[in-house]
Amino acid sequence: MTTPLLILIAGPYRSGTGGDPDAIARNLERLEAAAAPIYALGHVPMIGEWVALPILRGIDTASGDGDVMYETARRLLQHCDAVLRLPGESSGADTDVAIARERGIPVYTDLSEIPAFKG
């Protein structure tokens, strides 16, 4: 490994929340909790919602643009080097894993599986 990896953290965001903003916030906190350990390993953590949420605030979702969250993650995955799949049911995270596997990039299921970058 000659450069740090850009690692997408994938897991439940809206799944299982019933739309409850507090539950969604807890899910985002869980995703974000993996960011610092990935950074400490020498890599760049990324969460699709970090990119998609500002987009959602700036466009008219009623225009038929599709699901911004899923589309943003799909586009983002074209630039990622790996995925960390956190536990929990999530069709979006499952789609992220499928895209990663199609691209042939690693899918980790635990932080301990991610190799450290010492550059």
TrEMBL record:
<protein>
    <recommendedName>
        <fullName>DUF4406 domain-containing protein</fullName>
    </recommendedName>
</protein>
